[in-house]
Amino acid sequence: MARIAGRFRRVEPRATAHAFVLGLLSGIERKNCWRLAEQAGHARPGPMQRLLRSARWDADEVRDEVRVYVLEHLGSDDGVLIVDETGFLKKGAASAGVQRQYTGTAGRIENSQVGVFLAYASSKGRALIDRQLYLPEHSWCQDAERRTRAGIPDRVEFATKPTLAGQMIAAAVDAGISASWVTGDEAYGQDPGLRALLESRRIGYVLAVACSTRVRINHGRTAIRADTVADHLPASAWHRQSAGAGAKGPRFYDWAWVETSGDAHRHLLIRRNASSGELAFYLCWSPERVPLSELVRVAGTRWCVEECFQAAKGQVGLDQYQVRHWTAWHRHITLAMLALAFLAALAADATPTRSAQPNRLARSTDPIDLTVPEIRNLFAALLNFPKASPSRLLHWSNWRRHHQAIARRCHYRRRLFAPSST
């Protein structure tokens, strides 16, 4: 917390931010302002709500500190930047950026907000280092009244998700994040602008693309679909390699790579599931020639961002906010990223250095390394949050039920006096 203390001009929001992050690291069931205020011993949720909505501090400056902190603890020569998005299911239409849209969180079209994130992953660990709320073009960017109600700054214009990803990557590189590779799923691999940006910055990429993506092989004039290329590969073109360690051991797939456009720095990488035969395709570029094993390693690193989302939502309440304002969203998300980075740094520092990797497999009695969930459980227990007295528990119960009664009366009144549709 001392790292970000200077980002707050007054002692009150600084102390509230400290209590906020401690609450995110605690074991409380829901990590919204009401519960966090109760956990901190406050009589009202007002200080927590002001911290997110109106207190004077810049969430981007705190984000910068998170980025540096992650680099200090997780930075490594094998670091990879990962771009991806995650959805936040919401009710109503007032929250900034909310609309009915597809989100992988639900696996279908739902009323939700979508955040685009940048993660950093290395052999030491992984953490989220940047975030941007996606703002739909027609329902939000072109609706001035709606933007004003949600506190969206005038400077914010429509940007596609790959454009937001490119902005975050450029900002991270300019800030000193050293990563030779970027990876992401089809939503980002299909965008030629993002690929051009990475090439102009001399950053290699392994980006997933659709099977219908067309590439040129052997200086051919006609572009060929990626799945057609895979169908014509001989058996000798496939190589069994691991994409990294999974929960149940190494993730082995069959891999093939083909030069595209006659350029030794450009490849179509193809992954085949040995059991089902399912194929996945990646467009790859590197400023220098690299072996197949390096492209496979980077492709396998993409799943680290899914682990980040799972840990951030399950451990530090990334998706448990109850805010509608543009600024409040970015502030909550940034403080949750800080809490996750803290846990990831502890996990990295607690992992012993082992020179003989095969010996680990022989000693089956050794416990696994400390994980982010386990460290959060230990931290919450060791911190020994004081138990609330019966009077405080009743106070907060009365407070919540009082405000829920007000909300219910407002809903009933709105429906009773709404114009009839008949």
UniProtKB/TrEMBL annotation:
Pfam family membership, one: DDE_5
InterPro entries with a match to the protein in the record: IS701-like, IS701-like_DDE_dom, RNaseH-like_sf
Species, as recorded: Streptomyces lutosisoli
The protein's name in its UniProt record: IS701 family transposase
Transposase IS701-like DDE domain mapped to chain residues: 8-219
Domain of life of the organism encoding this protein: Bacteria
